[in-house]
Write the structure tokens for this entry.
Amino acid sequence: MGLKKALSSRFYYYQWLFSTRNLRRGVPQYKVLSIQKTIEEITTHKKSVSRFGDGEFRLIFPEHYLEFQENSEEIREKLSQVLRFDLENHMVCLPEQLDSVAAFDIPTKYWWKKFINKYGIRLSPFLDKNKIYGNSFITRFYLGYEDKSEKRNREIVRSLKKIWENKEVLIIEGRYSRLGVGNDLFDNVHSLQRILCPEKNAFAHYDKIYHAAKEYGKDKLILIALGPTATILAYDLAKIKYWGIDIGHIDIEYMWFLKKATDKIAIAGRHVNEAESQESFDIPQEFLESYTKSTILEITA
């Protein structure tokens, strides 16, 4: 973006922000930890994690659905339960922007302020302004931030990798998520297994997914990339003292960082629902054997 366009966008944003201030009147500012402090909580205290983003928030309301997840009374009740009930070994994470947008670039500031304008008051009954939440953007650490420097992002990745260092890891993911395939994100684990789930409407198969997690995930770190289903599953696993982390989007964000992306681009071998176009879903031959060997179960629609 050229200097003239950048200044124009910044001017427009602050002008718009001032003109819409009444829409945010009465919306609380929530307490959200930094990315690094959130990671420290997870690593030090082995906390399970449920992350809420705009999709999970929208599903709380009956008029909304997502491209990859239908709405239902059950999913609404489950998501609101995760927000309302505390567990000692579990952390709810909110978008950092519900605390502050200071660290983000102008398009991201604008997008989240628009979201707050529309949903801030409606969400307030589900949230506690006195509670300290984790940061949902532990898995979206790169693209929307003003600081896209190598140093900052390498430090975050190093901290994240300490969570699963030398751990026996079970990944529960959508069929085309392919976490860690073709990169070094999980090269420091002791072992890694995968359970593949439907890439759309995974919650319709929740009972099967939950029982598979119980069967194959005991005494392991369970990393879940499954949209709102992951948000709910991490909480339900915490209730039975399993360690589950809703980690969705981390692989795509890492790949965007490695490619120095400035937009949400497609990644070969994966489904990127936020990209305007998609590349081939075929796994490169050099990674296919290890990926296939790591897959211990596939839950089909």
The longest strand covers residues 168-174. Strands lie at 31-32, 48-51, 90-94, 132-135, 168-174, 191-197, 221-225, 243-246, 295-298. The chain has ten helices and nine strands.
